[in-house]
Fold each of these.
Amino acid sequence: MKKTSIAIALIFGTILIHSCQKDTTFLITETSVGPLTQDTKATDLETTFAKDSVVGDQVQIDLGASPKKFEVFEKGGKHLLTLTVNTDSVPTIENVRIMDSRYQSEKGIGLKSTFKDIQSKYDIKKIVTTLKSIVILPKGSNLYFTIDKEELPENLRFSTSNIEAVQIPDEAKIKYLMVGWE
């Protein structure tokens, strides 16, 4: 009877431990995006995304060079990530563009988030104005968010002057979510 109780307790303990572990398949941290880490070598992408399809830049491959850009697709065809490789002697991932809304930062920000969500979770270091968008750079983070100028009031859409956080509507949607590793 005592051995049975111990066995049952061990089984329940194992189940409890597994249920408490966080699924990191679509988690964005400062050093990782899902199974990808900032130290992942370009040559290891097929192994890192073994359940998915990794496609290299075909033009580079045709020219006999190593691809500088890779796209990761789920087996069903959904585009997950676009990866840019650095030019170091041992190429690693330099930039990750998130394409799937299931990916979220540790603070819960993803492609379905708004500017208000970003402001509530991150301190903003800088806002960069480009011709068609604004790029939001949070303090102390490798993440950056792009919002299309179409989300802004009309008087700011065609301006190249600096845009302040107070000028961005709370409901402005994220167009691009990216992680930059140097």
Amino acid sequence: MESFDYSKCTAFNLPNRLTLLRLLLAIVFFVFLSYRYYNVALGAFLFAWLTDWLDGYLARKKGLLTDFGRIADPFVDKIVVCGGFILLIQHAHDIIPPWMVVVIVAREFLVNSIRSFSESRGVEFGATIWGKAKMFVQSFTISLILIFFAHLKHLVVIKQGIVFMLWLTVVITVVSGIKYVVKAGPAILAK
């Protein structure tokens, strides 16, 4: 029986390996955040955020776009961001209203469902500038919250900045969700 050579499989190219590394970093992030090791959690999160940028850049620059990457990359992004916000509720319950996290997670479920439906109809459903802005603002907000708990809990102005960023995150998350619904409208409304 011939063995499968993973090194020759396009699904295991460098961008996709970075995506899988980000999934492992998400686990590290969740574990250390759960036990309030904010510096390690922040490091894992920032490294995951860097790999998200890097895998997209390499995939486009080197022509290494794959179906696996198109599915896995947004999936892992949702795990990192949604998991981060969900876990942060227990640490920042006086800062993060749970309804905001519900809106963020619901938008991700909605867009993922629309993406799946559209692609099942043969309509490509790539990221938009609004989706990228949403990811940046969400990641920045999580980073700011982690920095606050790691080093700046005594600064009220940072807490106020977090509240502002949470509202901005919700607004951009909702707007980007609406943009995706409008973009997919023809595929959804077709017979």
Amino acid sequence: MAQLGNLRHRPARRLTQLYAGLALYGVSMALMIRSGLGLDPWDVFHQGLARQTGLSFGTVTIAVGALVLLLWIPLRQRPGLGTVSNVVVIGLVVDATLAVLPPGEGLPVRAALLVVGIVANGAATGLYLGAGLGPGPRDGLMTGFVARHPRWSVRLVRTVIEVTVLALGWLLGGTVGLGTVAYALAIGPLAQFFIPMFAIPTRPADAYAT
């Protein structure tokens, strides 16, 4: 796990940012679920699987994350601490948040939950990717493909992945709504904005590179 070497530089900042990002990601998923206005594409897929299997939403999220790691093999991606933590932490947090967060009542509240959830999801992506300890399984597909195809932007690759997963989730019985469309359109630009904002140099010397 090459990313573990990054802990030699600013380890407290990296670990704090990593787990804050993962926790925020799980909370953002729960916010969108409780809005009742539509799930993000991956969660449409997770919901479809949960309905088919009877497992909790978080359990399905963990299982899917582990399986997605298999898709890293042809991309020659190497998992890091952030990758392993992503598989476990997000699923646990989303289940815990859903246990205490009631569904939104009234359209204004539901709309607010959706908007906050989408923006928080983008910020969470920037936080844990910026920690430099390895992308999550799903984001590893995005960053791995971009690394091997540099002419493709993060925004475009992320959008293609989200649309593909959305179609599969809908076929499995996941709920698609206005919030799903909003997420699919917004998450690419949000990730493009937040990832550079929270990126931490991997070495002290990087801070002075031009």
